[in-house]
Every structure is written in C-alpha cells, then in structure tokens.
Amino acid sequence: MERTPSATKSSSPERWLDEHGDALFRYAFLRLRDRDAAEDAVQETLVAALTARKNFAGNSAERTWLVGILKHKLADHWRRVARTVTVDTLPDADDPDELLERFFDPANRDHWRVRPPAWSDPDAALEDKQFWGVLSDCLAALPPAQARAFSLCEFDGLDGTEACKVLGVAPTNLWVMLHRARLRLRHCLEHNWFERQR
Amino acid sequence: MRRLTCKETSLLVSQSLDRKLPWGERVAVRLHFLRCEACKRFKAQIQFLRKAVQRGAEKIEEASALKLSAPARQRIKRALRKQK
Questions:
Q1: How many CB pairs under 8 A join A and B?
Q2: Which of the listed residues A84, A107, A133 is the one where a domain comes to its end?
Q3: Which domain holds residue A52?
Q4: Is residue A35 in a domain?
Q5: How would you class A130 by CB atoms within 10 Å of its CB: exposed for 0-12, middle for 13-18, buried for 19 or more?
Q6: Distance CA A16, CA A7 (A)
C-alpha cells in the first residue's frame, strides 16, 4: 500500500496492518496452529484497536499495545473452542502407542531404543540465529493438538489446570500430549541441530 | 516398590515440569535415575527445551517466516475501512 502523506501516525489503522500484521499473525499462529483462526484473530485485534484507539496512551510501543489486545482475542478464542470441541476429538490428539514404540522398545522392557546422548553446550545454541529456525521448524512439525498443548503451557506459561480448562481436556490427557510433544521436539532438535554440531 | 521403566520415567519426568509429583513418584524417579543416565539426560534436555522456548518466543516467531495471506490482508483492510 502506498502511504499517503496525510496518513498521520495515529489515524492509520491500515498502517498497523502493514507494519504489525505479519508479526501479530505469527504470534497468533504459533499458539493456535490454525491459519484461519489466526487470521481472524488478527482482524479482530485490529478492529478492536481501531475502536479503542483513543485509549492508546502512547506510553507503550504500538506493537506491545496491539499484542496486548491480541492476547485477549486469543483468550476469547480458547473459551469459544473449549465450549464447542475438545482436543480429544481431534484426529491427531493421540497417535496411540505407535509413537511411543518409536522411542521405547516393548521387547526390551520399554528401554530407550536410542538413549538420549549428551548435548554439547546447549546454551551456546541460544546465541545462534540458525538454532531458532530449527526449533521453529520442529514446532511446526508437531501434530496440531500436541503443538497447541505445548504452546499454551510453554509459550504462555499457563499452569496445567489453566491449560486443561482452555483446551477442555482432562489433566491426564494434557500430560500425555505434552510428553509426546517433548519426545518429538527433543528428538527433532537432536537430529537437526545437536548431531550436526559435533 | 516396583521399578519404573524408561518409558514410564520419561512420562513422569515430563509431568514434573507441569505439576509437583507426589512423593512416591518422585522417589521412584530418583531411584531410576541412579541407574539410568539416559533418563536423567532426557530431563535436562526437556528443561532446556522449556528454557529455549520461553526465552526465544519472539525469535521463534520471526524465524517462522509466516505471513498473512494476501486475501486475508485484503479482508482485514476492508473490515478496517468499514469500521472507520
């Protein structure tokens, strides 16, 4: 979009879309794992921002203000979802014992098939730009239900009870989903990052 | 007390990040750790995973290179104009 000279900073919600739209979308997508729902959340956020514009004191950064509104929209979304569909009914909520058998050998008293080896200097990875790309890809490769459970608990730091309420699942289901997500992510990071650092 | 398998231990270890384990389970996990370096490493590594995700949320978002689709952008623009 061409920015017209008359579009001053405060009066151009379309500029919010240009400058913050993608960032808001990424924020939402990472947590919802659903393109349509994430796009809707961005739209609701900007529309709400437009009506609340005069309340924006300008003492926080515009992005922070918008993300704050988005967080409320996401919370609304979770409440709606919890009322309608529970995560258990999603097709990928449980990939039964097949996944676990990839990691643990029932013929050998459920020992690790491949024992997690030591990682050399994991903290150094946090300083490496490429590491975040790998972690992002690993998250994207999770089945949606596991990804949502993981994002809620880890990105937003919800405790188990809150996360269960939001997702509409029993605690045991949540723990099973998180366990699977962590097994997958740990394996993915090892394969795509730590093994290559050696 | 029955000995835990690695599969059971890994589930409890994962849960220990989300809730405080009851005493009996904590002891069972610790006993398992005494003879299983692999499960101990699993715990350290998923703790690292948590640290990475919490510290790097923004970096992960940026790295994801996702963008609003063009139709969505148009739709949002229309909604904003209607609202004005």
A1: 151
A2: A84
A3: 11-84
A4: yes
A5: exposed
A6: 12
Residue A67: band (very low, low, confident or very high) from pLDDT cuts 50, 70, 90: very high
Rounded Cα gap, residues B50 and A124, in angstroms = 15
Measured between beta carbons, the chain A residues lying within 8 angstroms of B52 are 125-126, 131, 135
pLDDT at A85: 58
Q: Provide the mean pLDDT of chain A.
A: 83
Cβ separation A126–B56 shorter than 8 A: yes
**Domain CATH number, residue A153:** 1.10.10.10
- Residue A1 forms part of a structural domain: no
Same domain? For A94 and A191 the reply is: yes
Contact A190, A115 (CB under 8 A): no
pLDDT in tens, A139-185: 988 988 888 889 888 887 777 777 777 777 888 888 999 999 999 99
In the predicted model, is pLDDT for residue A5 greater than 60?
no
Fill in the amino acid letter for A111.
H
| Mean pLDDT computed over A69-82 | 84
Please indicate, yes or no, if residue A3 is contained in any of the structural domains.
no
Q: How much is the pTM?
A: 0.83
A105 and A193 co-located in one domain:
yes
* ipTM attached to this prediction: 0.89
- What's the gap in Å between the CA of B60 and the closest CA on chain A? 5
Instruction: Residue A131: list chain B partners with CB under 8 A.
Output: 52
Spatial neighbors of A71 by CB under 8 A, at least 6 apart, are none
Q: How far apart are CA A158 and CA A151, in angstroms?
A: 9
